[in-house]
Design goal:
The protein is an alpha/beta fold. It has five helices and eleven strands.
Amino acid sequence: MRHGGTGAESDKHMLRREFLAVRSRLTADDLRATAAALADRALELPELAHARTVAAYVSVGAEPGTRALLDALHARGVRVLLPALLPDNDLDWGAYTGEDSLARVRHGGRMALLEPAGERLGPDAVTGADVVLLPGLAVDARGMRLGRGGGSYDRVLARLDRAGVRPALVVLLYDTEVVAHVPAEAHDRPVQAVVTPSGIRRFT
């Protein structure tokens, strides 16, 4: 945790704790039901219907479940890229070809992540994605996303900017995590849409 930072950093830290506390109360049945609904809603996105390559992630813990969505995209013939966390919190990428292509990896004292077990494609592989699915804890009416604070996806978004590419940015959340306002800093970038178990909301 960083102390003595900006007001936005401090506000983000408090909000993260609140949203994570709510998630921690979800039951296994809640997680199963919302994951199935989230996949159904996400597959209605025109951006995903036309995508050839999607950068996604494997949900862990009480995050909105992504496994059903990953399998549906793979079954459609979409090239699905998944992140692998690097020591500096940047992300490398590998291809998802089904459950057998995942490996459980523990980074220090953190929760174990499911990462692609095969060939590493390099951090720049994400620049070839038509859609980037982003994890988060909340999104506001402007499309500003509250992440977990590790900075990995800030690096991804900066990499996309440097490459001059504009994939659709979509965050996957629970219904209660679409809020009026989240604190934003200069480096934060808005997403184009949020998918929740009950539907899709777009931002201009």
